[in-house]
Amino acid sequence: xxxxxxxxxxxxxxxxxxxxxxxxxxxxxxxxxxxxxxxxxxxxxxxxxxxxxxxxxxxxxxxxxxxxxxxxxxxxxxxxxxxxxxxxxxxxxxxxxxxxxxxxxxxxxxxxxxxxxxxxxxxxxxxxxxxxxxxxxxxxxxxxxxxxxxxxxxxxxxxxxxxxxxxxxxxxxxxxxxxxxxxxxxxxxxxxxxxxxxxxxxxxxxxxxxxxxxxxxxxxxxxxxxxxxxxxxxxxxxxxxxxxxxxxxxxxxxxxxxxxxxxxxxxxxxxxxxxxxxxxxxxxxxxxxxxxxxxxxxxxxxxxxxxxxxxxxxxxxxxxxxxxxxxxxxxxxxxxxxxxxxxxxxxxxxxxxxxxxxxxxxxxxxxxxxxxxxxxxxxxxxxxxxxxxxxxxxxxxxxxxxxxxxxxxxxxxxxxxxxxxxxxxxxxxxxxxxxxxxxxxxxxxxxxxxxxxxxxxxxxxxxxxxxxxxxxxxxxxxxxxxxxxxxxxxxxxxxxxxxxxxxxxxxxxxxxxxxxxxxxxxxxx
Length: 525
Hints:
- The chain is of the alpha/beta class.
- Among the domains are: 335-390, Immunoglobulin-like (Sandwich); 433-499, no CATH class.
- The chain is 28% helix and 17% strand.
- It has helices at 5-26, 62-68, 103-107, 142-156, 195-212, 230-237, 262-274, 288-301, 433-452, 457-473, 486-495; strands at residues 45-47, 71-74, 89-94, 97-99, 134-136, 162-166, 217-221, 241-245, 278-282, 307-309, 335-337, 340-345, 348-353, 360-369, 375-381, 385-390, 507-510, 520-523.
- The strands form five sheets. It has an eight-stranded parallel β-sheet with strand order 1-2-3-6-7-8-9-10.
- Helix 9 (433-452) crosses helix 11 (486-495).
- The longest helix is centred in the first third of the chain and has 22 residues, at 5-26.
- The radius of gyration is 25 Å and the shape is globular.
């Protein structure tokens, strides 16, 4: 006998209620009670995405995973049957994704955000020919929130450690499927939704999840560069962990102390710690030098409850020895030292040279080793490079005496976006690399407008050279080309120059990970 749609909904509500009761009764302690460790140890977080399936077909790698991984991020229903031998695992869900091929999209069209013409809107990711895989749900709708929480409660009774919520975007991130960001109509007011209203809805939603699921670990994948304010603080407080996608390895970070600087990201992490949450620096780098830079950044901010992740060097057949590093207790916080950022531990020292910085050479004396065991007496660090040095227990640091720690400055205010520029196409996490790439293209367009004012063969050669240079500098691929219109010309004359912006990288999907909210969108390794 088949149930009608109302009947199915009633059954789900009953199951969800029982699941929630189980979670509340069975959980003996608040989330995060066992998460604090040593700031000098590595808490490694491994995503169990489709590329990792060959290691989870059976329990042959269970001992390795339980020994090496502090947490895993996984997707149901595939991983539901593997929880008995896997490490503590977070289940993936998306905060406002309604997948086009799921029955919820057919049964509840009223949960999908629309533009002023009534067209359905999307999460701007993986879009093609005017459509995207995920409709954008109305996060202010109480029924959508209840649906989301009910699914989470059902899954938690299977034994997941917690919930990983993707796209906790504290910036309005909705599009029409054609690459254009669109402000949806707020069904509660009939007017276009504002950025402030979106942030309020998202903070309310995350607080509701926290209240209904108080005894599980909750992770938010949210951008660190959202406008600071009470709603962002509420969102952070509603989480146990904030994922900083790409971590300090993000290529859009700069030197100095500006808004997009590495130092400002570190100050944001300090703020997260002050609000009672931890962070995961989840990067996607290949080389050993990049991994050591990310590891150095992790040790600069680690409080014992933070984590680090990366694809390369974290699988059972390519484990990197650097992730086994043990530095012991910290001797203090990070501080500025000889143009580097430094932190000292009982059994080691961490040095990091921020992006856009000159190469620096440091005499470290004798007794230090790299993470691979190689003895070292001198360290040469280029821009965006770091080193983790170990030394015997009890040996005093032989580097120059530490300078007094530099007081942390407040997180820099977000720069105002140019009036004529749109928001980045994807803001799930990381520095907006696409925004910088778009700015580079616009600057090249303005240059072509200027070149059109001149004539002759030399002018044409310069224009072609400018076009080739533009293509080589652009970080993201383009399809087709755009003519320089009179509108572009007027914009160039009005603005005079294009402001420098940050970069943001694109993501790829982890398709086919099961029904409901089980697809994971992640940065390309």
